[in-house]
Amino acid sequence: MNKTFFIETYGCQMNFSDSEIVHSVLVSAGYSAIENYKEADIIFVNTCSIRDNAEQRVLNRLQEFSFLKKKKTHLKIGILGCMAERLKEELIEIQQSVDLVVGPDAYRNLPNLLNTVETGEKAVSVLLSEEETYAEIEPVRVGDNQVSAFIAIMRGCENFCAYCVVPYVRGKERSRDFETIIEEAKKLFEQGYREITLLGQNVNSYHYNDVNFAQLLARAAEVNPLLRLRFATSHPKDLSDELLETMSKYPNICKAIHLPIQSGSDAILKKMKRKYDSAWYLDRISAIRRYMPDCSISTDIIAGFCGETEADHQNTIKLMETVGYSSAFMFKYSERPNTFASENYPDDVPDDVKSRRLTEIIDKQQELSLKSNQADVGKTFEVLVEGVSKKSDKQYFGRNSQNKVVVFDHTNEKIGDYVHIKVTDCSAITLKGSRHCELQSSEAIQNK
Ligand code: 5AD
Ligand code: SF4
Known about the structure:
Strand order of the largest sheet: 2-1-3-4-5-6
Bound molecules: 5'-deoxyadenosine, iron/sulfur cluster
Radius of gyration: 23 Å
Largest sheet: 6 strands, parallel
């Protein structure tokens, strides 16, 4: 009988996308996926190292899996992803139930490594590659979402922001063959998907032969006008006018940009090695507004980086107000071993101060999100229907181009349809509305 596997994924969208590659590699080698981890012959945990609490969560979960292994001795446990890369053999020392440790560039080798593990040995494969992009491996889309899919267009990062572990665990930046990306987009559209998010640590620096990111995005948008395109993540230093112009030209390229600021203080941005200052960032915001007045802007913010003063923190709050973000991911600074910051600056903002600043940032964002949503009340948006609302099965939800969740009363629409919804109410998190039938699709698109 086929051996069965289960993959549990932590962290960013890239990790979820990688799990789809792993899935594909394993199925091609004759393994079968299973939904209940208790019944699996092999449990994989695809891990994240971005902050210490992400690692702690995985370590706690591993305890549960090792209890299971005591009862079920043939069970094998594999650690994939960033923690595998960061801790290598040490993971087996910390947690002896672990059989297999595989870094993000070694997934092709999983079937061989599993053969080794079957003999009772442990296996560790953590070499980073300068070329691996898994270009021709067709990911197996897992989960319930039949509308929206990710395509990884590049891997790695060479920005070496002072706080960040990513360049150490994901290796050098490399872009995936452009044709394979377009082929994958076409196939997904034919399978019924209506939204694709192009993924990379810094998509703006994508380049394959002479194709840059703006050109790739345009080609992907031309696959079909009914296929929506999104992308993440952008680095402010590389956000070009060419990209903004391309976004403005194609109605099916969503009007939403995730542009991590990290801090509103120039002194902190410099220490973080972000390679831009607040003036540069605000110039990019003006450019976005110039090309696309209706574009939503979201961000990432770190509270309590090394040496951050109260005045630095206030500058972050001020910058948030100036930009008027529609949403944000907000974190307490977490020192990561071997990064530039951990080697060169003391982690000197006390934890209670970090927590208080983070709360103030979250409160400010809550206010800005509500304001941004309130400004949409009365407007009509084209919404891609994604599923049944969690709160009531009489309601559906989807997203507008600006990536805002819109909840509306279900009539006869199907998942994957585009509908026009007039917003009548909102909270800080969602827009609420009803079908607006008079508006024709082309008008709606011009309205965007
Ligand atoms: N501590 C806290 N947040 C971090 N991020 C990256 N590294 C750290 C760290 N050491 C945040 C950044 C980044 C997001 C993915 O995670 O805001 O944009
Ligand atoms: Fe980390 Fe900076 Fe690379 Fe983003 S751009 S992954 S924050 S090093």
